[in-house]
Design brief:
WH_DNA-bd_sf, alpha+beta, 3-stranded antiparallel β-sheet, about 110 residues, 6 helices, Helix-turn-helix transcriptional regulator, HTH_HxlR, single chain, 3 strands, Arc Repressor Mutant, subunit A, transcription
Length: about 110
Amino acid sequence: MPVKPNECPVEIVFSLLSGKWKIPIYRHLYKNGAVRYAELRRHLPSISKKMLTEQLRELEADGIIDREIYSGMLPKVEYSLTPRGRSMISFLDMMSEWGVKHFSSGHSQ
């Protein structure tokens, strides 16, 4: 997704991960590698099926995750981070460190 003139690249990045569920989905895929839909549902029990499907589709459309279909007697679908998604790890780690430094208990602003 190339940045167009007058677009803020930071806003684009934040829009890719905006919403209540994208970061928890991303974090689970980062920690666990390829996972099936049912595993994501178990990991995020309060998300509705519709919302999980919607968030996965958006992440896939934005090139952050990959959806792999395996055929066989019992077909299965697995989700994993794409190279683009994995390339965000260091960026998200820096955001995490900043959050801990500035908003952890005992630290005032």
